[in-house]
Amino acid sequence: MEVRSEALPRAAASGAVCLLSEDDSHAASLARRAEGGDPWECFLRGQQYYEEYEEALVQFEKSKDTDFQALYQLGVMHYDGLGTDKDPEKGVEYMKKILSSDSPAARHLRFAAAYNLGRAHYEGYGVKHSTEEAERLWLIAADNGNPKASVKAQSTLGMLYSMPDLKDLKKAFFWHSEACGNGSLESQGALGVMYLYGQGVRRNTKASLECLKAAAERGNIYAQGHLVEYYYNRKFFSTAVAIARRTTENDNIEMLATMTDCLPAYVAKGVAIAAFYLARCLHLGRGIEKDEAAAKKYYSKACLLDPDVASDLELKANLGRI
């Protein structure tokens, strides 16, 4: 399971975004005040340059000792190597400072810091690998489903409890439900699949379709892939083809994952499922004119994106199940 850093919580970032959207004269004033060492202005200046990571690093370094938000951004940048060489130990150190601080100024960052520390323990990067410690920290970050806590931690727990080592599908369903209720697109798609196959919950086709359709409309590629499968299995071949075509138009997995904030592995699975069923329709002339050359292209795409998904579906096809 791949995990990513938690973005700066909105409560911290919103003020920066609002102020930085003002006119150029304000931006110039902001630059002057940042150069004067004002901690808040240094943070805002750093936020302005966040996509230009090297300049952001300079600005955040100026105020990291007095501004927990700058410290948080630096922690992410050092851990992931954004604008600087990777230094996971320093990233972990900064997140620990935030999590252990009793300052009111760090309060809104603690859940996100706990999530990131859980990620470090899960990956064994910058700190000793420990799935148990990752689970403990993610539970702190998730805070019993608190919508103001880390929704990413809630969704990640849903994924964690679906993995072989800690498999507990009832817990997985609980956490995906909490995360979905708090706006997680990733968990909304996962819930649709769990309802569809009765994983951790009683099978419920109506609830499954509601989740999958809503997630698919919001851009969840994994949900789109499962919608293709759903309609194909119910012989709505034209609908399956239409969704599959849209889903397979873009196979830039990293870009799609960034746009939707979904895990790349599940984005790849979604495109692979859609590609395989589109290939099947082209191969057999179901819902579309038969085209074996195009079918081979989509079979190959499915294999390249996710060999395991393609292998499982090929076996089902060979057994006459699809």
What does this structure look like?
By secondary structure, this protein is an all-alpha fold. It folds into three domains: 1-129; 135-216, Alpha Horseshoe (Serine Threonine Protein Phosphatase 5, Tetratricopeptide repeat); 219-322, no CATH class. The chain is built from 18 helices and no strands. It has helices at 10-20, 24-35, 39-48, 53-63, 68-80, 88-100, 110-123, 131-142, 151-160, 169-181, 185-197, 205-217, 221-233, 237-248, 253-260, 264-284, 292-305, 307-318. Helix 7 (110-123) packs antiparallel against helix 8. The longest helix is centred in the last third of the chain and has 21 residues, at 264-284. The protein is elongated, with a radius of gyration of 22 Å. The protein starts with 9 loop residues before the first helix and ends with a helix. Mean pLDDT is 90; it is low at 13-27. May act as an adapter that regulates LRP2 function. It is found in: Cytoplasm. Pfam families: Sel1. Keywords: Cytoplasm, Repeat, TPR repeat. This is LRP2-binding protein.
- Helix/strand-derived category reads mainly alpha
Percent of residues in helices = 55-70%
**Topology order in helix (H) and strand (E) letters:** HHHHHHHHHHHHHHHHHH
Task: Count structural domains.
Answer: 3
DSSP summary, beta strand count? 0
Radius of gyration: 22 Å
Taking the alpha carbons of the first and last residues, their distance comes to 28 Å
Range of strand content: under 5%
Compute the number of helices: 18
Which residues sit in consecutive blocks of at least 5 with pLDDT less than 50?
13-27
Mean pLDDT: 90
Tertiary shape: elongated
What does the largest sheet look like?
none
Main location: cytoplasm
Subcellular location: Cytoplasm
Keywords: Cytoplasm, Repeat, TPR repeat
GO cellular component, one term: cytoplasm
